[in-house]
Specification:
Blueprint lengths: L15 E2 L2 E2 L1 H18 L5 H20 L7 H8 L6 H25 L5 H11 L7 H12 L4 H9 L10 H29 L6
Antiparallel strand pairs: 1-2
Helix pairs in contact: 1-2, 2-4, 4-5, 4-8, 5-6
């Protein structure tokens, strides 16, 4: 084993071409992001993880039903457009919102070395998910973000090999994390632009 980010599919390794974003690689990378919340070490983030997992499952189910029409996320959404219940389209939309929230939070943390995680996550939430949440969900997220661990503890967990191998250096962690976040940001922006251009976000 190795430090966490070296063990999961990076968004930097998700193939993106003119045809679209590779569905399976994207889902694997998204599952890796879900695991980050385990490192935050608070059960308060359970609702965030459950939401991400549920939306990943909706996209995965659609891929299994129509694999030849769903090899890219764009094709998957386009081919579901005429159906009454667009479960995968809705699931992917909310998944993108959750990914954007996590991405912005960690980008905030990377850009402000003296800032605690709770601040980074609150600022990201305000800009991403908050406008789409009702009063109850806002309260749940507020509790979760207050339960963020200290910055140093979280980043130390990112560096540690859970099987006792050598820990990652700060330099290596920053290199891998920044590459991961840049790619994630690019994928999310690309797909959100696709949703808006095609009107795929209407009704959700």
């Amino acid at each position: 084993m190795a430090p966490y980010l070296d063990t999961v599919t990076s968004f930097a390794d998700v193939p993106t071409t003119d045809a679209g974003v590779d569905t399976l690689a994207f889902l694997k990378a998204s599952e890796g992001l879900v695991g980050l919340f385990d490192l935050l070490g608070s059960t308060a983030f359970g609702v965030v993880q459950a939401d991400l997992k549920g939306n990943i499952a909706k996209v995965w189910a659609r891929y299994q039903e129509t694999p030849t029409l769903s090899n890219t996320l764009e094709r998957l959404v386009e081919n579901e457009k005429g159906e009454k219940k667009r479960k995968a389209t809705e699931g992917l939309l909310w998944l993108l919102r959750g990914l954007e929230f996590t991405c912005k939070a960690l980008q905030n943390a990377q850009a402000n070395a003296s800032e605690e995680l709770a601040v980074a996550f609150v600022n990201a939430y305000t800009l991403t998910l908050k406008p789409f949440h009702n009063f109850v969900v806002k309260g749940i997220f507020s509790v979760a973000m207050k339960a963020c661990p200290y910055r140093v503890d979280f980043f130390n967990k990112l560096k540690v090999d859970p099987n006792g191998g050598p820990s990652s250096s700060d330099e290596h962690l920053n290199e891998v994390l920044n590459k991961w976040l840049t790619a994630l940001d690019n994928v999310v922006t690309r797909l959100q632009t696709f949703y808006k251009a095609g009107g795929h976000d209407k009704g959700f």
